[in-house]
Amino acid sequence: MACLTEEMKNKRERKRKSSVLIIDSDLGNMGLYKSILSTEYDLENVFELEVAKSKLKDCEYDVIILDDAFDEKELLQFIQDINKMKRGQLICLITEHMNSELAVRCICKGVKKNIEKPFTRDGLSNGIYEELKTIRDSYIKKHIVIVDEDLDNLKNMKEKLIDSYDVTIMNCAESGLKYVREYKPDLVIADASMVDRSDMNISENLLSRKESSGVTLLFMTDNPDEECVLWCAKFKPDGFLVKPIDMEQLLDNIERTFLVDAYGVRK
Q1: Is the dihedral of CA 65, 67, 68, 74 positive or negative?
Q2: Residue 102 domain-assigned?
Q3: How does DSSP assign 43-102, residue by residue?
Q4: Does residue 51 belong to any structural domain of this protein?
Q5: How far apart are alpha carbons 95 and 230 in whole angstroms?
Q6: Mean pLDDT of all residues in the chain?
Q7: For position 145, what pLDDT does the model report?
Q8: Is residue 192 situated within a structural domain?
Q9: What is the DSSP letter of 119?
Q10: Which of 57, 168, 171, 239 gives a 20 to 30 Å CA spacing to 71?
Q11: Which residues are registered as beta bridge partners of 116?
């Protein structure tokens, strides 16, 4: 595994524009969508629900804009199918009748935002932005960086954590610190001996990062003797893990680490 991992490339890719799938049978509306949204979002448009279903099987979109002019039964089934995917997409319904029975039923099926036709620039753009921010805040995962030279351990830890957290694995202390400095993760889990053997500047920078930005730090080691514990203590870690890692204990430690009450005290 190289120091610059695919994880780092993926992180940078996530800084792209939010993606929007527009499903509208009215060709005339597409120019209007483009003029309002293209500078802030990556747009793709289709004219039929079946085509949209095929795209959604292979692609993920942050926002789905759906016109209500389709057959009512097919429209409601489509919305229900999207939500079964549990990807956290924002679904917006474009409708001429905000309080119609269909609009209400669409909300019940999973539409997050009704936008009235004919829509304005502010009505469409601001409506999407506000709702998308709300959805992202509720779905966002804590970002964990794991630094270890044991590739099997990295793989096992990532597999255990990936469903609940955004996980980046690194097997190079120097690149790990650069990554932490650039992306400011919520938690760093580092092999103590790996950090100890690295350049002194790495250790000092990790300590500085811990003190200045409050990054949460867990150390892991396969040799928890007194000397190791004392060395780790100077970093004021939030936890200590002994290898081989007990995965259930790992999850418990991480959950406890992230449990911060209103007064900022860890429980």
Answers
A1: negative
A2: yes
A3: EEEES-HHHHHHHHHH---SEEEEETTS-HHHHHHHHHHHHHT----EEEEEES-TTSHH
A4: yes
A5: 65
A6: 79
A7: 93
A8: yes
A9: P
A10: 57
A11: 95
Contact 147, 176 (CB under 8 A): yes
Residues 177 and 230 occupy one common structural domain: yes
Residues of the chain with pLDDT under 50: 1-5, 7-15, 200, 211-212, 260-267
10 Å CB burial of residue 226 (0-12, 13-18, 19+) is: exposed
Are 147 and 74 in a shared domain? no
Query: Residue 87 is encoded by which pair of tokens?
Result: 């990807």
Domain of 156?
142-258
Can you give the length of the chain in residues? 267
Residue 76 CA from chain centroid, whole number: 28
Indicate the number of domains in the chain: 2
Cα-based distances in Å from 50 to 73, 78, 142, 162, 242: 13, 9, 35, 32, 52
Residues 127 and 197 reside in one and the same domain:
no
Task: Identify whether residues 146 and 215 lie together within a single domain.
Answer: yes
Q: What is the pTM of this model?
A: 0.47
In a domain, 52, yes or no: yes
pLDDT given at position 252: 81
* CATH, residue 47: 3.40.50.2300
